[in-house]
């Protein structure tokens, strides 16, 4: 058993973008390893993590890229976006500014990425409902206007994390298959 010699039908590169501290690395840790840390450090070294899953009887290797402290505007290099077929634009529902910055992250993404890239807007930390600074409707409206998928998640409570990644990966699969 195991995945030795497993035949991979597709490799999908998906990039995580958004302001620092919105929870990108913890979303990835939750999805790839079902882990979460409250004392998450800035990502060092590791550029991406992979998870192999099955969609429509095909073996898909999701290669999810995480920024390593390059969240300052325009610090993310074009190599990061190269070959990406999906992107998750992440903000923190308790930090209005992180949502207000989504427009320029999107602009930067569209400037670098393939025009057919599948994009999902993610409002993370939905467990912090009492501190909410971004109404769900505001994000929904932005997502509709910009043609993005949208979901609210909590990496801490594992809410919608699997679902968000599966949605974007399935949509990518549908566009390439
Ligand atoms: P990044 O800079 O975007 O990669 O953010 P991190 O993943 O490093 O997370 C920043 C901080 O937010 C860390 O202290 C995390 O533990 C915390 N965090 C991440 N996701 C959540 C979440 O869903 N809920 C809560 N309450 N905290 C979170
Ligand atoms: Mg990080």
TrEMBL record:
<protein>
    <submittedName>
        <fullName>Uncharacterized protein</fullName>
    </submittedName>
</protein>
<comment type="similarity">
    <text>Belongs to the small GTPase superfamily. Rab family.</text>
</comment>
């Amino acid at each position: 058993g195991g995945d030795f010699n497993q035949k991979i039908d597709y490799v999908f590169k998906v990039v995580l973008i958004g302001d620092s501290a919105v929870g990108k690395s913890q979303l990835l840790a939750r999805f790839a390893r079902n882990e979460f840390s409250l004392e998450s450090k800035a990502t060092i070294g590791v550029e991406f993590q992979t998870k192999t899953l099955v969609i429509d009887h095909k073996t898909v290797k999701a290669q999810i890229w995480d920024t390593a402290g390059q969240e300052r505007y325009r610090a993310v290099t074009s190599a990061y976006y190269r070959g990406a077929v999906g992107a998750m634009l992440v903000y923190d529902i308790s930090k209005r500014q992180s949502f207000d910055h989504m427009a320029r992250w999107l602009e930067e993404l569209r400037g670098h990425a393939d025009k057919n890239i599948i994009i999902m807007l993610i409002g993370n930390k939905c467990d912090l409902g009492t501190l909410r600074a971004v109404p769900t409707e505001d994000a929904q409206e932005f997502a509709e206007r910009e043609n993005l998928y949208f979901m609210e998640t909590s990496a801490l409570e594992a809410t919608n994390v699997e679902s968000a990644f599966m949605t974007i990966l399935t949509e990518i699969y549908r566009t390439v298959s």
